[in-house]
Amino acid sequence: MTETKIRVLIGSPIHQKPTVLKEFLNSLLRLNVANIELDFHLIDDNDDEESTRLLQEFKSMGDHIYLQSSGFHDAYIRNDTTHFWSTDLVWKVANFKNLMINRAQTLNYDYLFLIDSDLILHPDTLRHLIGTNKDIISEVFWTQWQPGTMFQPQVWMHDEYNQWELLPGEKLQPEEINRRFHEFIAKMRNPGIYEVGGLGACTLISQHAIKAGVSYNQIRNISYWGEDRHFCIRAAALGIPLFVDTHYPALHLYRDSDLSKVDDFIKETTETKADSTDAESNLSADDVPISTEPTSTPDNLTNADNTDITDNTDNESSKETIPLAKKRPKLTLTMVVKNESGRFLRQVLEEHRKYIDEAVIIDDGSTDNSAAICLEALEGIPVHLVHNTISKFSNEIELRKQQWEEVLKTNPEWILSLDADEIFEPSFAANIETLLYADEVDLFCFRLYDLWNATHYREDIYWRSHLNYRPFLLRYKEDFNYVWNESPQHCGRFPENIFELPHQLSNLRLKHLGWSKAEFRLEKYLRYMLLDPDGQYGWKEQYLSILDEHPHLIPWVE
Asked: What's the farthest any 2 CA atoms get from each other in the chain?
């Protein structure tokens, strides 16, 4: 009697570089499809003709491959630092995935397997995931979201990307979050099947889950970023648990430099002799084909809500709380001000005084009482105030070097460099000590949100600073040779080579208030056009977009 084959539709929206796309398509051809009837639904969203040609060539292999043109020609920027996603791009991709769900339901496939086009799969991935008998399950992969940080899995436990267990009503201290984070990471490195709160990018979805109503439609009262989060929340609300499998980790080609790993990955996964139908595979942690350790030393981390965690999983004894007898490192705020009395200066300084130990402030040619406000707002805190009778901002590198030298005169330990219109969310004050006590980290980076009014921040192709992590908190090292970017504009607040130091990313958020009023935006526009009319040191299109009458705004949620 002929065994009935399992019908699977592989779906992938594709906007990809040809070099990466070629490896992805070859990976699909290496899949073990014994007893599987495999079809494809691919959406060509490319702006590169070579990528389109590769898809057309792939389609020519048979009628089981359905290739659909997206009809879009959106810009999608990716580089060796990160990927830049706008809200429009996110929901465009969500619509593509919904089309694939509809196709799988209409044609009655047993499973839909959604895969991002920058993944390289172990040949036994699909058969193994089917063998788990889960309605929704992803195969794990590991990504270094920012250069020099630790690798993290694409799955999480709750909220946007919290990778630790949290029971309803629990209020965890940073030390306990740290411990649970390490437990989660260690578990993801151990071959098994685990229930999670969020997943994506390499996901098998059963016909049962599809008929139950899973989709990538936006949930309007949820502000979480990314279509996968809305999919996961809807699945949980429908009573469908989410799982991750860690037996056959995929290779994520997040950067062009990751292409160098493909040959070794193929060699190792081809040689792996494991029973792909056994959910409890004998594949050991040492057999995992991609490194899950940071590529830089010492250990680094990327992501946590309201706390930062250093990767010390190699030594259980290193997971310790802050010694009570240890003196709190000194935190020095440094800032440049010029005619800020009518803006946000007092507001931000009154917040900063909750956690700083001293301040170094350059009054760069103010003609108002900005200097007096600094002294009043920081009364009781040592303030090193320097007056420039003539502003140096037209040659910013000169100003930033002066600021740096004045800070060094105070023998700093940690340096927090902020502008006079930048303020952290309230939870920063409660969590700053965790950062200051991080012995193996010398630099923390944060996301900066450009507030366009009191309640919304701006996001579009020109305004996406909050999608990157930028350095604001630096431990001063006397034996490090600091090198500056010698540019008259946009030279950076810190020396440009500080990323050679061990660093982490923090999910504590920073609000930029300077764009939040129309009159301030006009003033900045005129200043940029005066100092850099051709966009030589910045981005002229961004300068021009400052005056957009109907920008895309997103609510800020504390």
From this structure: 93
Q: What is the pTM of this model?
A: 0.53
Question: Which ranges in 331-490 belong to alpha helices (H)?
Answer: 345-352, 370-377, 396-408, 427-436
Peptide bond connecting 298 to the previous residue in cis, omega within 30 degrees of 0? yes
- From 249, 208, 257, 214, select the one nearest 233 (Cα to Cα): 214
Query: CA torsion angle for 189, 192, 195, 201 (degrees, to 10)?
Result: 70
For 108, residues 6+ apart whose C-beta sits below 8 A from its C-beta are 7, 207
Buried b (16+ CB within 10 A) or exposed e, 238-268: eebebbbbbbbbbbbbbbeebbebbeebbee
Check residue 286 and report its DSSP letter. Answer: G
Q: Please tell me the distance from the alpha carbon of residue 21 to that of residue 27, in angstroms, as a whole number.
A: 10
As a dihedral over the C-alpha atoms of residue 394, residue 398, residue 402, residue 405, rounded to 10 degrees, the angle is 150
Along the chain (558 residues), what's the average pLDDT of each consecutive run of 10 residues? 85 94 96 95 91 95 90 58 59 88 93 97 97 97 81 92 88 84 92 96 97 92 84 96 97 92 92 43 32 30 34 35 64 96 95 97 95 96 95 88 96 97 93 87 92 93 84 95 85 90 87 92 84 78 89 90
- Please report, in angstroms and rounded to a whole number, the separation of the first and last CA atoms in the chain: 62
Task: Catalogue the E-assigned strands of 89-201.
Answer: 111-115, 119-120, 136-143, 152-153, 193-196
Residue 544 tokens read as: 């021009």
Cα dihedral 431, 432, 436, 440, rounded to 10, equals: 50
Question: Which position has the token pair 């030279």?
Answer: 491
